[in-house]
Amino acid sequence: MLKIRLARGGAKKRPYYHIVVADSHSPRDGKFIEKVGSYNPMLPKDGPAPRVSLKAERIAEWLKKGAQPTDRVARFLSQDETLGQTVKWQAGNNPKKGEPGKKATERAAERAQREADRLEAEAAAKVEAEENARRQAEEAAAAAAAPPAEEAPAAEEAPAAEEAPAAEEATAEAPAEENA
Q1: How confident is the model at residue 180, as a pLDDT?
Q2: Of 2, 20, 5, 1, nearest to 71 (Cα)?
Q3: Digit-coded pLDDT (tens) for 29-73
Q4: Are 36 and 55 in contact (CB under 8 A)?
Q5: I need a surface site. Which of 48, 55, 107, 130 has the fewest CB within 10 A?
Q6: What is the full DSSP assignment across 120-131?
Q7: How far from the centroid of its chain's Cα atoms is residue 50's Cα?
Q8: What's CA 52's distance to the chain center, in Å?
Q9: pTM of this prediction?
Q10: How far is it, in rounded angstroms, from Cα 9 to Cα 18?
Q11: DSSP states of 23-69 as a string?
C-alpha cells in the first residue's frame, strides 16, 4: 500500500520534513518513491516563507493511483486550495486517548486502598483513645465517690513517719553549720 507521509530530515532539535510517497512497509526515513513536498516546522506560521510546500499535481496523481495520506499530511492537503476538495480531513475520534493506562489505574487503585486503610486505622485509634479516656474518667469518678479503704491511710502514714525524723535531723544540723 502506498502512503503519502512525512520523512524526517534536519539536525538534532532542528526538524525538517520531506513529504514523500513511499511503501507503507518501508522505514520512516528510508526508501521512498517520490518527494512531493516539504514541511519546515521551524518557520513562523505567519512568516513570508510558507511552512508547507506541495507539488499539487503530483500529489493529485498519486491520490488517483490509490496512495493514502497519513493524518498529518491529510491536514496539510485539506488546507491547500487545489487539493482541499479532494482530501477531506477531520480530527480522529479517540475517546481513550486521555485515559490512564492499565498500570496507572492499578497504581491509583492501590493508592486509594492504602489511603482508605490509613483513614480507617486513624478512626479506629481515635475511637480507642476516646474509649480509654471515657474509661479513665469513669474510674476516677468511681474512686472519688467511693469511701477510702482502711489500708490506704495506713500506707500513707508510714511514709510520713519515716520522713519526719529525716526532717528533724536536717533542722538540727542547719543551726550547727551556721554557728561554725
Answers
A1: 46
A2: 5
A3: 898 999 999 999 999 988 898 999 999 999 999 999 999 999 899
A4: yes
A5: 48
A6: HHHHHHHHHHHH
A7: 40
A8: 38
A9: 0.52
A10: 7
A11: ETTS-TTS--SEEEEEE-TTS-TTSSS-SEEE-HHHHHHHHHTT-EE
